[in-house]
Design a protein that fits this description.
mainly alpha
Length: 374
């Protein structure tokens, strides 16, 4: 008899991993910025994050969280806030997707997400990464249901509110998802509903519109300073490095680099070929567009070690695809071998995370210490 651990047990395991030794790793430069920012009153936080090209929602909420009577202090208290959002992301992933799957597929998808070395590393940093993941899941989950029931204005309104929360948390996933919605969703919802969705989101974002325009202008000029942190001396090679490093990190973490280069393309190919039924068909078109727009936004702004954190909001959908693709093969033993190799590489990176090694590759550790583009 196969024992199927319920969601509560997975959440308990995830909480033990996320909330243990929150002060184990030293604070990154961005975490230090968060720590300094939330020490200010809200009226001062707004101009600070405007100057640093961030929307304000995460910082305002983190400030309020830090004022609670918590068993942690300093950066550990802020990391606990991120850990809470990571738990919420797991609940939302199951609520909108995996609970409709067969028990074995549901269990595998949730295990992959909960134990993802990339999510365990970046998901509990004192940044908005895990909050972005949760809000992307909420937004796409509501949009998926709205597409199936286009006459439900409650679902449409909920999706618009979730989109606004995402835009007020970080520009990249919000703009990326909005681009995908505008390009694809009209086929299911009709042009009028999509226009109403856009207008409602635009109206709710009007107070921050000038800040968004300024951020877009600064992003357009980012090539002049980001090029000084290039590692390869070639624009093309730099993009290949960023894309490859991001794929490796999101899939199995920054570990066993040579082996990763061999394994990750196979894993991603399997996931791509087996994930056709992952989402409701109209919504499936949103993700590739959002991923492309998001990568363009991130790759122009940050150096390669920081691509995975900025694209973490795509991780749950990658794990869903892997849950569909890894066990599938012509022979059971082949599928089992794929799964064991993937798990071995992921487990090594998870060990590195909880062994106080921020990165297992010395060159990357040195670059993270020097680069201000975090």
């Amino acid at each position: 008899m196969t024992i199927r651990p319920p969601l509560a047990i997975l959440l308990l395991l995830q909480a033990c991993l996320l909330f243990s030794a929150l002060d184990l790793l030293p604070a990154w430069g961005d975490e230090a910025f968060t720590l300094r920012t939330v020490a200010h009153p809200v009226r001062e936080i707004i101009p600070i994050v405007q100057h640093d090209i961030h929307p304000p929602l995460y910082y305002v909420l983190a400030r309020q969280w830090r004022r609670l009577p918590l068993p942690w202090s300093g950066v550990a208290a802020l990391r606990s806030f991120s850990a809470l959002w990571a738990l919420a992301a797991t609940v939302l992933l199951d609520l909108f997707w995996t609970r409709f799957w067969a028990p074995s597929g549901r269990r595998l998808a949730l295990w992959l997400f909960v134990l993802s070395p990339c999510f365990l590393l970046y998901g509990r940093m004192a940044r908005s990464y895990s909050m972005q993941v949760a809000l992307v899941l909420l937004t796409l989950g509501l949009l998926q249901r709205w597409m199936k029931r286009p006459n439900s204005w409650a679902l449409g309104g909920g999706a618009a509110v979730a989109m606004l929360a995402l835009l007020y948390t970080h520009y990249v996933p919000g703009i990326a998802l909005m681009a995908g919605v505008m390009a694809v969703a009209w086929r299911s919802l009709g042009p009028m509903r999509v226009a109403a969705f856009w207008l409602a989101s635009a109206a709710g974002y009007a107070p921050w519109a000038i800040s968004l325009m300024d951020a877009m202008n600064r992003w357009g000029q980012a090539g002049s300073f980001s090029s000084s942190y290039a590692s390869t001396g070639s624009v093309l090679r730099e993009q290949v490095l960023k894309a490859a490093y991001g794929a490796i990190s999101l899939t199995i973490g920054e570990t066993f680099l040579v082996v990763s280069l061999l394994v990750v393309p196979v894993v991603l190919f399997v996931a791509a070929t087996r994930a056709k039924g992952l989402l409701h068909q109209p919504l499936a078109g949103i993700l590739p567009i959002a991923a492309g727009v998001g990568y363009l936004g991130v790759a122009r702004w940050v150096s390669y070690p920081f691509i995975p954190a900025r694209m973490l909001w795509l991780l749950p959908f990658l794990m869903l695809a892997l849950a569909l693709g890894l066990p599938a093969s012509r022979g059971w033993h082949c599928g089992e071998a794929r799964w064991q190799l993937f798990w071995l590489l992921s487990s090594h990176r998870t060990f590195c995370t909880f062994a106080a090694r921020t990165f297992s590759i010395p060159a990357i550790r040195r670059r993270c210490a020097k680069s201000p583009l975090r």
